[in-house]
Design goal:
- The chain is an alpha/beta fold.
- The chain contains eleven helices and ten strands.
Length: 303
């Protein structure tokens, strides 16, 4: 079972104990989780301490440790520096891939994301035809920035006319930050496990972004978080509490149509990263991108 460990209480100490992550408070154990089940650790409490042996063990398993700011957005991520048997060859292929190939890959990801956004609006009885038209107009590299045009249409119809996406804002935006942090850490793990370098992105190229490729690959999955946040805000308000975090973490276990079957989000991200790595090596673009689930699935998220 894939689990994201969230640390929100001040004063906790995290350590390794015989195959488990042990959580202690003033020397007394308050919980433990099998290391083999952990795909990421997210730390919000700034008074948290961690043993070096635990961090090394998590790195060996490819599980990132994410440290967040007060707005629930990630400040730093600890990831292993190696961990894939074909890493050298795949990194060379990734680095040597030409710009036209990267642009075509980014187009496929944007088209997939807009498809997911349109399906979300349809599930909530909002007009999605303009998004469907935008989906068909995405060019290689999205040179016309259709992704941003789609976002301007999508957000007010999903969250209300007054909503503005702002990473530094509280309430609903903070819920989105937390959900995206879970996605980002899962995507970063998938990228590393696939033998790719997370800094070398398809589209995100900010020189200060060490996880540009993870940010690229998580894009089609963002609308799932958006649905959870909408449901949570309507049901209980926009507070980022334990219940809300648990709902958002469960997104990685949601089954999505992929290929001939269904696959949990965490596995879908791994398959997407692996397919990209293989595409770099073969020079033939074949991305394993998910399809939107049924409308009822969107409606039930966060409710």
């Amino acid at each position: 079972m894939d689990r994201v460990v969230d640390i929100t209480t001040e004063g906790r100490h995290l350590s390794k104990d015989r195959g488990f992550l042990k959580v202690s408070d003033e020397g007394c154990e308050v919980g433990r989780i099998a290391l083999d089940e952990i795909i990421a650790v997210v730390v919000h409490a700034h008074g948290t301490t961690c043993s070096a042996s635990l961090l090394a063990e998590l790195a060996d398993r490819g599980a990132p440790v994410v440290f967040c700011g007060s707005n629930h957005a990630p400040r730093s991520v600890l990831m292993p520096v190696e961990g894939h048997y074909t890493q050298g060859a795949r990194l060379r292929a990734q680095w040597q891939t030409k710009l036209p190939f990267l642009k075509r890959a980014w187009k496929q990801i944007v088209v997939c994301k807009i498809d997911m956004q349109a399906s979300v609006l349809e599930a909530f009885d909002q007009p999605a035809a303009p998004l469907r038209m935008m989906q068909r107009s995405v060019a290689s590299g999205d040179t016309s920035n259709v992704e941003a045009q789609a976002a301007r249409y999508y957000w007010p119809r999903l969250m209300g006319l007054a909503f503005r996406r702002d990473r530094d804002a509280p309430d609903v935006n903070a819920l989105l930050n937390y959900g995206y942090t879970v996605l980002r850490s899962t995507a970063a793990r998938a990228v590393i496990a696939a033998g790719l370098h997370p800094t070398i992105g398809l589209h995100h190229t900010n020189r200060e972004n060490a996880f540009a490729l993870a940010d690229d690959l998580m894009e089609p999955f963002r609308p799932l978080v958006d649905c959870v946040v909408r449901g949570l805000a309507e049901r209980k308000g926009p507070e980022v509490d334990t219940d809300a975090k648990q709902e958002l973490v469960r997104v990685i276990a949601l089954d999505l149509p992929l290929g001939d079957g269904t696959t949990p989000v965490s596995v879908a991200l791994s398959k997407l990263a692996t397919s990209l790595g293989q595409s770099f090596e073969t020079k033939k673009l074949e991305l394993a991108l998910p399809r939107p689930p049924g409308s009822q699935t969107f409606l039930e998220l966060g409710s």
